[in-house]
Recover the amino acids of this structure.
């Protein structure tokens, strides 16, 4: 479980994240939804401990990210905004590199990578250099890389960005499978259609603040006669007006 | 420790597979030796030709000075009696236009003045700005002056005076330079090439593993791994050191081969730059590699983009050459207090090596320790820069 408590972070005069609190439960897919610049990426960066929060805390599986960042990172798999693969390494080598940095012993690592290659159907690209990969192939390898240490929690920053319809569908299937395994999946997006079919819990953020939370069905009940898209847009506009 | 090894291995493999990088890594070490070979060959060939070749010089009014002409011939200067020069002005024009390097004009009144109390005149037309012609002009001038002195001496003897009267002072020169020390003058720039090749060998990697990694967006997921940033960066710097050392070794190898082929004796030098010297030079320069790697990495960690890092890095390439330039200009000798200065100390020690003089062990130790200490300091600085949040850009 990921627990976020009144996180704040500013860059100069800009308050990128302004007192954000929410929870992402195990066995659920939680969607962090917001327009560009709402603070989603900053929030995920704080959770993955590459940025430090100004105030507030977060716990990854009960581990405080400020107090024990290395343990928190062990419990996390991160799929960043852009895959960030090493072009000169093969798909497999990219995955193995992260496995070694996670301290996985060589024989266990080989078995783990084999299993990931099989499950994510990476056979065709595992031994090719990442240089010529399509966006979908890059995302696949990056996902395998994020899962190499079998983390309980997974952070995905706009994972469907740039993916074609088939690749998007595959990604959703894998995320559902990870949920079925009881993992905690937290993903960000700025497009409601992309996530409404996938997420169990929505956290809508705008101008660095959480403006609306709840399961899609719950929200539909609270705002009868409106689509999720409309609810999202209205929540964002309301929040941006009050911030201005 | 395992992290350092994993990162170092990955960076080495990553760079090895990049053909562009590999090319520049090979080009750096070859640049110096090739330039050197070309320069020395040029010097040798010029020295040889200028001493032996028959020099053809248009002489205007040769018929007025047959003895002078004979004297010139004796010194393998062939006076051209048939030529296109009619007077001094025309000679000046032709020399300025580069048709002739030097023209000798015998004065109209030469035969009248010769043998009287008036000095007979000969004009030498040349262009001082043409350095290539310098040695030819000197040869002609020397031949003419020698002829004049010879005639003067004969006249003194004929008049019954002692020719020694004309030489109240004699300068005896005692040049204690050896062929090895003479070559040190020239091989002094060798250190420059070696330091330069060491730094360029790691420049790409230092930038690629920091600013480059950020630009390609692979830095963020890397920093989210359960390893300390310090160990990541130490791994990257270790890989950079490996490439720098490889570049240094290649450069030394290329120099050893190139200098072995060159006819240095023909220009009064000798090269003791054999395998043993190269190995010693390698050991002397080895402590400089960690310093260079840390310096380059610190600069690259500080820059925001690959391009920015490249710009700074190119400037930084010049930094180690500054002490060398001063040392050469001021003709600095090795001294204990200079051994604290990296790059200068290596330069002085390698110059000692080339001069075939013994190395002072304490100098070598101080040079190595100070380079390593500076390296540690810069490495620490690089880690601090790498820890900043701004590293993500």
């Amino acid at each position: 479980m990921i627990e976020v408590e009144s996180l704040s972070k500013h860059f100069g005069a800009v308050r990128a994240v302004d007192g954000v609190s929410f929870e992402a439960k195990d066995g659920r897919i939680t969607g962090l939804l917001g327009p560009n610049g709402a603070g989603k990426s900053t929030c995920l960066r704080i959770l993955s401990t590459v940025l430090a929060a100004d105030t507030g805390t977060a716990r990854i599986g009960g581990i405080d990210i400020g107090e024990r960042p290395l343990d928190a990172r062990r419990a996390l798999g991160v799929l960043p905004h852009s895959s960030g693969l090493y072009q000169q390494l093969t798909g497999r080598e990219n995955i193995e590199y992260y496995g070694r940095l996670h301290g996985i012993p060589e024989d266990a690592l080989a078995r783990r990578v084999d299993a990931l290659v099989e499950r994510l159907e990476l056979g065709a690209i595992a031994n090719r250099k990442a240089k010529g990969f399509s966006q979908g192939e890059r995302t696949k390898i990056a996902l395998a890389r994020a899962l190499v240490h079998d983390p309980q929690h997974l952070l995905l920053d706009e994972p469907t960005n740039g993916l074609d319809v088939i690749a998007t569908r595959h990604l959703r299937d894998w995320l559902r499978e990870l949920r079925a395994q009881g993992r905690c999946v937290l993903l960000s997006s700025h497009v409601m259609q992309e996530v409404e079919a996938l997420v169990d819990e929505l956290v809508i953020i705008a101008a660095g603040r959480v403006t609306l939370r709840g399961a899609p069905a719950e929200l539909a009940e609270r705002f009868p006669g409106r689509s999720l898209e409309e609810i999202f847009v209205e929540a964002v506009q309301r929040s941006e007006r009050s911030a201005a | 420790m395992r992290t350092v090894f994993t990162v170092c291995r990955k960076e080495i493999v990553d760079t090895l597979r990049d053909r562009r990088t590999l090319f520049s890594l090979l080009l750096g070490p070859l640049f110096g030796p090739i330039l050197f070979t070309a320069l020395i060959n040029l010097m040798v060939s010029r020295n040889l030709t200028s001493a032996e070749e028959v020099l053809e010089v248009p002489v205007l009014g040769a018929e007025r000075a047959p003895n002078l002409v004979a004297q010139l011939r004796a010194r393998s200067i062939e006076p051209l009696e048939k030529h296109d020069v009619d007077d001094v002005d025309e000679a000046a024009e032709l020399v300025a236009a580069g048709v002739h390097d030097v023209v000798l004009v015998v004065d109209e009144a030469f035969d009248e003045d010769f043998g009287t109390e008036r000095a007979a005149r000969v004009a030498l037309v040349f262009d001082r700005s043409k350095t290539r012609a310098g040695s030819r002009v000197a040869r002609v001038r020397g031949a003419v002056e020698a002829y004049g002195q010879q005639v003067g001496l004969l006249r003194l003897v004929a008049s019954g005076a002692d020719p020694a009267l004309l030489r109240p002072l004699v300068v005896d020169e005692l040049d204690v330079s050896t062929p090895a020390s003479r070559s040190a003058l020239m091989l002094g720039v060798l250190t420059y090439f070696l330091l330069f090749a060491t730094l360029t060998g790691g420049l790409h990697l230092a930038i690629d593993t920091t600013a480059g990694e950020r630009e390609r967006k692979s830095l963020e997921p890397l920093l989210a791994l359960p390893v300390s940033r310090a160990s990541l960066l130490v791994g990257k710097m270790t890989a950079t050191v490996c490439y720098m050392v490889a570049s240094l070794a290649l450069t030394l190898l290329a120099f050893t081969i190139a200098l072995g082929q060159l006819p240095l004796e023909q220009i009064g030098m000798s090269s003791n730059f054999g395998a043993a010297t190269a190995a010693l030079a390698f050991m002397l320069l080895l402590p400089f590699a960690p310093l260079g790697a840390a310096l380059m990495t610190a600069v690259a960690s500080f820059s925001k983009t690959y391009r920015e890092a490249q710009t700074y890095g190119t400037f930084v390439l010049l930094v180690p050459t500054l002490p060398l330039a001063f040392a050469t200009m001021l003709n600095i000798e090795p001294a204990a207090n200079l051994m604290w200065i990296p790059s200068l100390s290596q330069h002085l020690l390698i110059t000692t090596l080339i001069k075939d003089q013994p190395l002072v062990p304490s100098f070598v130790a101080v040079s190595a320790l100070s380079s390593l200490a500076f390296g540690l300091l810069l490495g620490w600085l690089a880690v601090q820069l790498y820890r900043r949040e701004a590293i993500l850009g």
User: Anything to note?
Assistant: Chain B touches chain A through 25 residues (CB under 8 Å). Chain B has two domains: 2-44+180-392, 53-172. The mean pLDDT of chain B is 85. Chain B has 16 helices and four strands.
